[in-house]
Amino acid sequence: AEHYLMPEVVLIFLLLLTFVVFLSALRSGRRPAFFGAGALLGLALLCKPVAQVLIPVLPFVLLVSYASVRRVVVPTLLIGAGLLAVMVPWVARNALEHGSATTAGALGQTLVARTAKHDTGFRWYDEGDADTYERREGIARQIVQNGIRQRLSDGVIYRRVQDRFVMSDAEINQFMRELSTEIILENPGYYLRGTAKMTWQLLLGEPERLSTDWKTQNARLSRDEWDDRIEHLLSRASTAQRNELDTASAVVALVQPPAWGPTMPVLFIIGSVIVVFSARYRPALLLSLSVLALLLTCAALDGPVVRYRYPADPLIALMAAGALTIGLPLLYRRLAALRSRPAVVTDRQGRQVPVNTPAATSAPATGPVSRGA
User: Is the pLDDT confidence value at 205 over 60?
Assistant: First the structure.
């Protein structure tokens, strides 16, 4: 999906490894494993700060799995210790280098992307309220509103504000974070509806289409930085190859869950419902809650960027597989039980008895034959 190494690639690996270690610790109760799960989560957090939303998920899964507050205390402390062992040095480094004791400092720009790029329905500047704006605030609002009108990227808008006021990276991040938050609070209902819509978009995903690559083939052929060893791969498609586009696209769609429409999201929801009501599979809440936390946070703070779905993709697939492998046998057994129940009739005393019993055959029924509920 991209031409460079994305942090999502590393995050997928770290999250899956974290969950494997955590679930192993949950089953065995080994304390070093809980510490290791916390340390791995800390590495995931350093990879992408959005992983911070998973910090409360692990203790919650412990609580619903053990059903005992006392049993949760020590494992939670061990997870926290492992997390702090990784995070404290990095936070200290940021405090020394940037004067900010945080794990990252780009929230200002991501909120601009959320409210000015992916959702252009927010009103950043209103002539009628111009007198109520502080001078610097009013200028910044105008810059952002003009950027929306010109369909500029969030990065360009962000840097224009920074250059206009000659701010450092830390200063512009804080300024735009506060201003974006103010914009959101001016219309919270619209923001919540947009966040819900974008979360569903991320859950659905967006299929990669071969036709898009083919249409940009000529542009790629004009690039001169490609290695000679792959030059033959960049030749223009032949007539025979173009005739096979539909077939090739259909084959690719088989391994692209977003190309299946709402199938995977619906199965994910069914799987999540199953684990909520089944104590045996309750630890799988770790997967469903992590998916919802990751996608909801990305939608709320940035927007429906396609690659933000990738870390959650294997977790969605696991829950969908659970819906099939657990849900279908349960449904089959339930239907089989209903079919095996005998038909009943109502005798003269108003009692329901099976059709084949002597009481049912010796007395006429006073009501219709019915299946047991």
Answer: yes
